[in-house]
Amino acid sequence: MARRHAFSVFLASLGVLLAAASACAEAVSVAALRLSSSGPLFIAQDRGHFAAEGLEVTFRFFTAAQPVAVAVTTGDADFGVTGLTAGFYNLAGKGALRIVAAQSADVPGFHLSAYLATPRAWDAGLRSLADFPGRSVGITQTGSTFHYMIGLLARKEGFALARVRLVPLQSIPNMVSAFKGGQVDGLILPSSVALPMIEAGEGRLLGWVGDATPWQLGALFTSGRTVADRRPLVARFVRAYARGAAEYHAAFNQRDAAGRPVAGEGYAALMPILEKYTQQPAARLATGLPWVDPAGRLDVGDIRDQVAWWQAQKMVDPAVDAAAILDLGFVEGHRNVPR
Amino acid sequence: MSAPEARPVPFRGGGFVRRPRRLVSLSALFGLVLAWQAASWSGLANPLFLPAPAMVAAALWELARSGALAQHLLASLGRVAGGWLIGTGLGLAAGLAVGIFATARAAGMPLVSALFPIPKIAVLPLFILWFGIGEPSKVATIAAGVFFPTVIAAAGGVDAVPRSLVRMGQSFGLPAWAIVWRIVVPGALPSVLAGFRITVAIAVILVVAAEMIGADTGLGAFVLMAGNLMRTDQLLAGVVVLSLVGLSAAGLVSLAERLLLRWR
Amino acid sequence: MELLVEGVSHAYGALPVLEGIDLAVRPGEILSLIGPSGSGKSTLLGIMGGLLRPYAGRVSTRGRPPAGCLNPLTYVFQDFALLPWRSVAGNVSLALDHHRLPAGERRERVADALARMGLADFAAAFPRQLSGGMRQRVGIARALVVRPAVLLLDEPLSALDAQTRDLLTEEFLAIWQRERTTAVHVTHNLGEALRLADRIAVLSRRPGRVREILPVDVPREERSAAARAGRIAELHAHLWALLRDEARAADLELAEPARGGR
Q1: Mind listing the pLDDT tens digit for each residue in A84-137?
Q2: Distance CA A320, CA B231 (A)
Q3: Structural domain contains residue B23
Q4: Relative orientation angle of helices A231-252 and A39-46, to the nearest 10 degrees
């Protein structure tokens, strides 16, 4: 009886000790989407990289890119990871946001986003990426990544974007139903949605965005205030994130000699983490695992291009300075840095 | 016992009288704008979250100057007018039928009660499947939103026409069409016009919702785009224009009431 | 024109209100219908003008309506039944609007009816601007404009105060003297009936039956004269005796909780 009592006292004091230790860990909240492109984040969390930096990370999940940026702006989250939109740059340009590392990028050989044509538009001559002028394309919103990807295509194929009728439909399900109903001629869709439609004959594949127009799709960012006031914290966070990115890259971004995806080191161990956070089955995830730089390095020149393009579209305030929204001091060796 | 002292009866009336105080209304509005501007100047209001009135005014001016305002306004007004006219026309016909014919009431009223509370915004995707992504689905959304309150207002208006007036018409041998046109319709008019007051506001609300999908012009599309782009000054400029549209529509209804209901 | 009521019975649901009414309204006479509340006076008037369908019996007219008559059986209502959104002239012309008439005749008829009721200066006024007496004048003008063969007056004065009632009674009689339009007049006011009627039909309490038809054997112009006051008082007493017990019983009946419609 006495021994049992002593044991429970021991357990209780252990509990107090543990609580004290975790109280030392700094609480950090991160806004993100439940997408595999945020994989480095999930891996860093579940593999204990954040904890190793003394960070206690909690996630706040959203369903669109915009709220992620807003959450960081308002201070509801300390960090955000999501796609780069015109709205993001407008917020960032007002000093509210700083990009500190890369998220995913569209690169050749990685089939993230598909250009699709409806069978009817296909029959009517929408057979290649150069055939978009004079046709309608569904997007989620003006200023979204979908909007930008069409803009990139227009630039690459050398047609005026104004010759494509962009139809804002607010959500991907709306885009899919408008596409199936023949209300639009073409779409850009994530591979997880696009592939089943192609198999079912509901859409014709015209190509992949990564092959046609590689670009820096997303980024890890924080608020201007956090960068200024809590710089060491940002450095610790980015370090842990980059470790996650390296593991993600090693496991999911490997290709064989023929360019076919192969399972890399740690694939089997890390896939359940992605399954858990994205709430998607592995089979579905495997078809569209995005490319993520192993060190979280950004394509800096591309981000400057993005800002300039949006400004040319009069959708980003001309006063926004691309250099000022980037803080390149947390990751070594960013790519394509303009001199 | 001496005569008790006479005491004046204290005044207890007064108050609760409606008197127009135009100056008060104006200065309340003006004061609000001024306080808002002052908050921005003093740095109390973050311009990112709440742009100063001057910034909103500048955005509005830029919109007007570039011709974008006229383009968006015309697109929205066209949709509002089309949808409102269709919804009102059908609603009045259905409302009169429901008010006059027992069969139509038995069939129509439960349907109206069941369909009225459905948010038209929620069924917008359905309208897009039925009417396509262009103008018809937007006009249909507004028409549907306007239709049901109009039916209820018109049927209520018919109910409010004293039956003695209808009997009077019959006693003078008025044919059925004349009873409807000269007695029932004018008698229902006050209720119908009160309904208009609500339906013009509904039409303005729904045009914004309808323009969320598949529209690149229109005030709703503009406000939504400004929101997507985080251009809060433009967003508020659009909201100001929308509110002015609503005010003007309500003003038109008031004018109609003054002209048509002089007899009240 | 003559108006004949033969064997008319009526019921609201299971509640009989009229039973075996036989009446002949003679050409050019004023017949007053009196009876206690719930005796079916107004129902009978509705049946006589074709606004209600009796469940037994029939109503017919005999003789030709006068020249220019557009609506042989024409009502004057207790609540005036004016359209509030039409002016005085508009309310009067409502009775003509659906008839094919030359515009000149239409104007003339309206102007004439308004002039006869002393409404010429109020043609453009709306009903809400008028006193009760003026409103009923509009109601009467609207009835006159169609040159009726039979006037059906449904308690036309009961919504008015006593002085207005007297004034309007005199005016109505002055007009009636010239036209001699057949009229059926429903009232619960014995004095009014004795002032206007050639004959007074007394209805019993529910279900209404004709208890007695009483000729008023004093010429109209002498009815307010002091010399004939005795005879008028006699008639009044007789009518009151007929009505009193009925009225008391009807009163108790109305006080019962389970009461049907009138």
Answers
A1: 999 999 999 888 899 999 999 999 999 999 999 999 999 999 999 999 999 999
A2: 12
A3: no
A4: 100
Radius of gyration of chain B (CA): 25
- Total domains in chain B come to 1
For chain A, the straight-line distance linking the first and the last C-alpha, in angstroms and rounded, comes to 75
Co-location of A125 and A146 in the same domain: yes
Specify if A66 maps to a domain.
Answer: yes
Q: Which residue has the tokens 């959450």?
A: A71
- Which chains have at least 3 CB atom pairs separated by less than 8 Å from chain A? B
Q: How many residues does chain B have?
A: 264
Between CA C15 and CA A158 the distance in angstroms is: 90
The answer to the question of residue A3 being in a domain is no
- What are the CA-CA distances from residue A42 to residues A53, A57, A274, B150 (Å)? 15, 10, 7, 54
Chains B and A touch (3+ CB pairs under 8 A): yes
Amino acid identity at B152: I
Look up the domain containing C130 and give its range.
69-180
User: Is residue B16 one of the residues assigned to a domain?
Assistant: no
Q: Measure the CA–CA gap between B88 and B253, rounded to whole angstroms.
A: 13
Does residue C187 belong to any structural domain of this protein?
A: no
Mean pLDDT score, B194-202: 93
Q: How many domains does chain A have?
A: 2
Query: Which run of H or of E encompasses C60?
Result: strand C56-62
Q: Cα C252 to chain center, whole Å?
A: 27
Partnered with residue A28 across adjacent β-strands are A57
What's the CATH code of the domain at A63? 3.40.190.10
* Shortest CA gap C139–chain B (Å): 10
**Is B163 inside a domain boundary?**
yes
User: Looking at residue C137, which CATH number applies to its domain?
Assistant: 3.40.50.300
Is B85 at the interface with chain A, CB within 8 A? no
**With 0-12 CB in 10 A as exposed, 13-18 as middle and 19+ as buried, what is A21?**
exposed
The reply to whether residue C128 touches residue B178, judged by beta carbons under 8 angstroms, is: no
Complex-level ipTM: 0.87
Decide if C130 is inside a domain.
yes
Give the count of alpha carbons within 13 A of B46, CB side only.
Answer: 8
Range of the domain at A298: 25-106+216-330
- The Cα of C51 is separated from the nearest Cα of chain B by a number of Å equal to 7
Say yes or no: C75 contacts chain B, CB-CB below 8 A.
yes
| Residue C81, min C-alpha distance to chain B (Å) | 5
Instruction: Considering only the beta carbons, identify the residue of B128, B230, B231 that sits closest to A183.
Output: B128
What residues make up the domain containing B151? 76-260
- Residue by residue, what is the 3-state secondary structure of A273-326? HHHHHHCCCHHHHHCCCCEECCCCCCEHHHHHHHHHHHHHCCCCCCCCCHHHHE
Nearest to A325 by CA among A289, A298, A292: A298
Look-up of token digits 């609007």: C97
pLDDT class of C254 with cuts at 50, 70, 90: low
Among B170, B178, B263, the residue with its CB nearest the CB of C126 is: B263
Q: What is the pLDDT of residues C195-247, one digit of tens each?
A: 889 999 998 887 888 888 999 888 888 888 888 888 889 899 999 988 887 77
